[in-house]
Amino acid sequence: MKKLTAVLLTAIVVMSALSGCFSATAAKSKTVKSGSWKYTVSKNTAEICKYTGREKSVTIPEKLGGKRVVSVGKRAFFRNDTITSVRIPKTIRTIGKSAFEGCKSLGKITFAIGLRTIGQEAFYECTSLTSVKLPDTVTELEKSAFCWCEKLRTLKLSKNIRVINAHTFNSTLITKVTVPENCVEIGKNAFTLSDVKTVTIGAKVKRISSGAFDAAKKLKAISVSKDNKYFSANSGILYNKTKTELLAYPVAKDGTEFTVPAKVETIGGSAFSSSPLRKITLPVGLKTIGAFAFNSSQKLVRADIPKTVTTIGKFAFNECYKLRSVSIPSSVRVIGSSAFASSGIRTLSVNHNKSLTLRDGVFSFCNELGKVTLFPVKSSDGNTFESCGSLTEVIIPETVGKVYKKDFFGCESLKSVTIPETVTEIGSKAFGITIDAEQEFYKEILIKGFKMSGKSGSAAEKYAKQNKIPFTAK
């Protein structure tokens, strides 16, 4: 009985949400229809939950049924292809989640003083919108509020805005951003893939999430108020206040080479993401290379890792197609997931280090890599060299005791491997198995012609028998 009740309640909630008239106060309010408007009433206020009209120019009423309209509710205009302009009255305090999402003809919005919050994805993918001027009563822009407004060129932020959340202006044509003095936080990917050229960080900003300006390919310079206690800038590059962490290097900054200052100990997340630099010199004393730090830096040929580095974050050098040689020093303790995946590595050297932890797929899909000497590690999530399509030779020294799951899965050019008896454990699908690309549905098959050799009675022989792989005892 309890399960049936739960199912029914869930169905009611889902159906209400889909109708566009569900809110947190639904149980205490009633839905009313007046002309082109559906709205809910709670005490002395109203929330618009659906517009059913076909007018191109819409003015939201200040009152409905004698009640003051204070909110445009969730999905109220969702994917309305007719409206071209909307006027928001002074009574509105909140614009809800996805209220105008996908209104692709909406080219003009007039906001009035009184608005406080613009909800998550409120104007997501309003692809005709060209300008936004927010009243100074707005204090928060929630996640993805104007994301994928791909014609949005001009922006005036409220001087009282406190937070610019993640993905807020992702994929827009905005060219200039002045972060207001009262803003304290800029979220992850807030201006990613935008056309922003210059950014000015205000005095009160105390948090800038990684990748806030990721892949902003026209960004030339970032400046910071001298009164800011948390951040600083030098030559257009964003640092923390003490300049021990480099946070963002503008993608369109002039030059093909850059030497990171000696004082820097951390390269922040996405700091050089999509950079056109060919060579980056990292300082001795550097300890951390953050997640996505050099992700998709497709012209990067060289970035030698100093012997002081202890952590390389996930996707740090992912899709660095021209990065030919990588040497991992013995100081490194952790390499994150896909840190060097899909890069152009041809030669790889990992200094003997039994304290090294590998996350998933560290060197996966490196299709230029032809030869690998395996190395011992403290632990691994596996898939280390998965789908390295040109890999033809794997050398396993006697210092290696374990090969992890799917470490060489999908390496179809690898036709044989000799495994020493020091290897006492081989993870599932580590060798000789790939995906059958000719099948419509996912199916794993043995790599044609693959064979193994090793000591009789060893873990290698056991693995070969389990997977029906030809084995030669030596």
What order do the helices and strands come in, and which of them pair?
Layout: H1 2-19, E1 30-34, E2 37-42, E3 45-51, E4 57-59, E5 63-64, E6 67-72, E7 85-87, E8 94-95, E9 108-110, E10 117-118, E11 131-133, E12 140-141, E13 154-156, E14 163-164, E15 176-178, E16 185-186, E17 198-201, E18 207-208, E19 221-224, E20 231-234, E21 237-240, E22 245-248, E23 257-259, E24 266-267, E25 279-281, E26 288-289, E27 311-312, E28 325-328, E29 334-335, E30 347-350, E31 357-358, E32 371-373, E33 379-380, E34 393-395, E35 402-403, E36 416-419, E37 425-426, E38 433-435, E39 444-446, E40 451-454, H2 459-466, E41 471-473
Parallel strand pairs: 3-6, 4-7, 6-8, 7-9, 8-10, 10-12, 11-13, 12-14, 14-16, 15-17, 16-18, 17-19, 22-24, 23-25, 24-26, 26-27, 27-29, 28-30, 29-31, 31-33, 32-34, 35-37, 36-40, 40-41
Antiparallel strand pairs: 1-2, 2-3, 5-6, 20-21, 21-22, 38-39
Apparent shape: elongated
Distance between the termini: 65 Å
What is the average per-residue confidence, as pLDDT, rounded to a whole number?
A: 93
Beta-strand residue fraction: 25-35%
Which structural class should the secondary elements be placed in? mainly beta
Individual helix count: 2
The biggest sheet amounts to:
11 strands, mixed
Helix % is under 10%
> Based on DSSP secondary structure assignment, what is the total number of beta strands?
41
Poorly predicted regions: 1-20, 23-27
Radius of gyration: 28 Å
